Amino acid sequence: MKMLGADAILRSLEAEGVDVVFGIPGGAILPTYDAFARGTTVRHVLARHEQGAGHMAQGYARASGRVGVAIATSGPGATNLVTPIADAWMDSTPLVCITGQVRSSLIGTDAFQECDITGITIPVVKHSWLVQDVDEIPEVMKAAFHIASTGRCGPVLIDIPRDVQEAEIDFVYPDTVDLPGWKPPRRGHPRQIREAARRISQAERPVLYVGGGTINADACEELKELAEFGRLPVITTLMGKGAFPETHDLFTGWPGMHGPKWSNWAMNKADLLVACGARFDDRVTGKLSGFAPGASVVHLDIDAAEIGKLRNADVPVVGPLKQILRDLGSELRRLSESGTPAPYAGWVEQILEWRDEFPLRYATAGELVKPQAVMEALQAATAGRDDVIWTTGVGQHQMWAMQYLLCNEPRTFITSGGLGTMGYGVPAAIGAKAARPDATVVCIDGDGCFQMTGSELATSVLENLPIVVVLINNAYLGMVHQWQNLFYDDRLSQVHLTHAIPDYAKLAEAYGALGITVDDRADVDDAIEEALGAGRTAVIDFRVDPQEQCYPMIPAGAAALELIEYEEGAENENVRAF
Amino acid sequence: MRHTLSVHVENKPGVLMRITGLFVRRGFNIESLAVGPTERPDVSRVTMRVDCSQHSLEQIEKQMHKLVNVLRVSELGPDEAIERELLLVKVTAPPERRAELMSLGDVFQARVIDLGPDALIFEVVGTPEELESFEELVRPHGIKELVRTGRIGLGRASAKPDAGRRLALIR
After folding, report:
1. Cβ burial, residue B107 (10 Å; 0-12/13-18/19+)
2. What ipTM was assigned to the predicted interfaces of this complex?
3. Among B42, B43, B62, which would you mutate to test the A interface (most chain A Cβ atoms within 10 Å of its Cβ)?
């Protein structure tokens, strides 16, 4: 069928089953936006900044498991997408970014809004294309979706010059891809899986160390079956949060820099770590040489390059986690039928003892609202609901959200883990809402983060993608404040943002959203109830205690057991009942 | 430790940048790099010499395998492969020194491919080690300019087909 390249882009998106894309038009992508105007089944959500569009596409992808799509123009439009692309790269989020490029004849001439975006993004994409011929569009689009979503998920970029969008093509969408150099592993090796099962069956203190790869692989059911059959404690990373029910008795918390002490004890005193789609990130391990010193490692991952990258794997298994975890479960069953004992009966009880001994604590003294108390109120207000999706920015509020909000389902905690992108929360929430219109999407954000992408409130209101923003407004760039306090003798440098400028509730109202300011503890619950029930975009500005810090904390470069704790003994102390 | 890698790639724009970028990101220096066509018009071969630990080499090899345009990565082990390099050197050669230089060249089967009033250009093909020896021998005569292609290599014909050790992939 004859059509323009621009129409071929949309027909390709339709063929891939894309229902929503996020973007902003501009000169070099105009022909494609004209194709939107001619008609398509694809909904376009108009963002206010390309970074917002990119994070929306990420939020969409993370909430749905489908590929997120972001569209931008050339030059600054494309460079504004670089942060979401890098974020998707670090967090293995399937993302297809389509950018307009200046006309082919102008490429390389420093033309207006020209930028070598394929060159700029090479270190942070799985693959990219500069489409030089309109006839390449269908196969490139097909390959882009295939590469983004197979193997280890991640971002790809398609840069399409304006004249290519305007050229005519006889459109046929291919059924298959021809990518001789792209062959993700299809099965974990049976012998390795048998060896992994043998190790698990002989371990005394095993821990399943579960990362976001388990969610990407849609392997959470298999994980649960394996854990329950083997009575294996499960620790989930920030990216893996929700992969295993957090109210389960085998749930062992979150590891690393701000993980609870009992979780880090379990991880570091284990004699066997079974890493499932996790990558031994420095925020998890602390000082690598001091991490889980007595543990041997079974490493299950789709990406061979993660095996042995940071920690040697005694038993590596490369392949899709769904199959690997299922086969590992069967193999464990076979071993138990043949009478191999499970010698670690006391281990889970030991961890539960640590859990009771080392709960999360914070002081409740004083007048000001405590951020942890806001989290507890949110948890209480949403407990038992299965329709809540959390997104976060990056910083203290993110860590409190990890510690206090319990997720029992995968794809319900959407956060920037690897790149640590402040400003991720609001646009990611909008994208998640587009993916899951039935869900109540709540963004836990900091005042610093919110000011980076808060303009997307307009998108939320005008596109009818309502979200609730819970602003943990502590008047500071809180995590930087905490580091300056702990490691720079409390010399505060360029971290004070103030509680009141801007007035976030007024700002929300200006965007047509509901704005609520809370600076009294007595109002916390009512504000949450009002915002969750509002049925429209709402921002609750919780003006919290600026001095509150996030504990426990493993200082960067320290071993995981050398953590800094909240000093016990304050009179009014809240002990988090787990 | 030094390693020679042979990388089969699809002949597509940007592929060299993607490969070299992996090395740059990890701070490894590429000592030599040669890219050229192969027996298949759609496939090029990149031969690179790098100095890194075995652990780093394995990591970078696995990262290279993830590149969509990379078809195969193998290491050319010194005992299993033939390696050659081409050198052009312009040497000061006043008429009274020419004969001495040319007999020197004969030892290395170097060809004189250009001759001027007071300089000549040698072309030498050999193992990188032979080229280094030749370079040292002519240096006292005065090297005006010198260029080397970087090494290329193939697995030995006596070895199994597709020779060149395919780096261990954990699959």
Report:
1. exposed
2. 0.89
3. B62
